[in-house]
Amino acid sequence: MTDVQVQDRVASDGHSPQAITSTTPMTAAPSYRAAPHTAWPHTWSGRSAIRLVELAAVVALAFLTLDFVFHAIGALNVGFAALSYTVGSFLASPFVGILKTTSATQGNLFVWADVLAMGAYTVAAIVVSAVVGRLAGSAAHRTA
Description:
Helices cover 51% and strands 20% of the residues. The protein is of the alpha+beta class. The chain has a domain at 47-143. A hairpin with a 4-residue loop joins strand 1 and strand 2. The two termini are 30 Å apart.
């Protein structure tokens, strides 16, 4: 919709004012109420879910690695090592007993359940990321 607005302006050149009449086309502001309303204007890409899965996997792998390394070097169960032992043993608990824990020297342990858990969580993160990526891809194809 286009309206024409007529305005009378006075221009002064320093000697005598003269009237200027111009026709300026005026367009109406877009009406947002006329457009269909969607609850979420963007399609779900799944990137945030994949990033969350990757973040969780990195944190879990970091604690499992620290647990394995602290056990291997014989770190005492205090401070940050105690936190790593607690979180790492919790994450590795489903895999305890599958592989035998070995002792290299007095006080140094190789907790192979940590290594097995690292592999399992890595594979799980890859599978979940791939599934979310496929679901997001099929959702994008449906909306297109």
